[in-house]
Amino acid sequence: MTRTHTDQIFCPQVLYKKRDCPFLFPETVRTSRSLIQVVTRGSIVTLGLLIVLGTLGVSITPLIASRGITSLAVALALQPTLENVFSGIQLVTDKPVRVGDFIELETGEQGFVEKIGWRSTWVRMLQNNTVILPNSSLAQSKIINYFYPEKELSVPVEVGVHYSADLEHVERFTLEVARKFLISHGWGVDDYKTLVVYTSFGDSRVNFTVMLRVKEYFNRFWVRSAFIKALHQRYKAEGIVIPFPIRAINTSQESAQIQVPQAEP
Known about the structure:
By secondary structure, this protein is α+β, with helices and mostly antiparallel strands. The chain has helices spanning 5-10, 13-20, 27-55, 61-77, 79-94, 135-140, 167-184, 219-238; strands spanning 102-104, 110-116, 120-125, 130-134, 144-145, 153-161, 195-201, 206-214. The chain contains eight helices and eight strands; from the N terminus they run αααααββββαββαββα. β7 and β8 form a beta hairpin.
């Protein structure tokens, strides 16, 4: 069976395996090796040429001076590129993001890190397009890494019950449903200690939050959906009411006396 990128979006464990095995991603290694080889060969050839010229009695001082000026001009012209190169080295050494990580950019875009090169980093968006970021921009921006320091993620679920409900019973039934759900569901963290925290008094209900935990970032959508259905079914069986929004409208108004002016004779 051929895996599409859609499979990678909903089954990101494929990317985890690649991230954990760097040899499956030889792009960065090949790029690094090629760049190092080019720089090394160029330096050796230049040094050898200068030695040969010096042996032949040719004054190499003007050549060195002109080469220094040329190098300075080239360095100024390549300043953005060099900045990206050193930022790429910083990303590789500090590892704020790694190949296979799911990140959120400062602009709000989300995607998988596909490649970290010397000049740019490639991020595959959920829409199956790719954003190519200069390493300098990525190194200086704020990034949310949903796979660091671990893959597990807490999922808050907001719930509300009627004011007439017994809150102790509500908490007990909710915890029972949540714990059984995390154990039985393949994407839930079964050893997580579920929490129920009452947060506020609403217009027509008492609000609280149920804390769940999932194994991976993308599991949160399906786990939250399945838990809401399971909790609604249990509340219905126990007679716990989730109220509709209630608004009291006062329509009584004082009758206004309208005086009609009489026409002059």
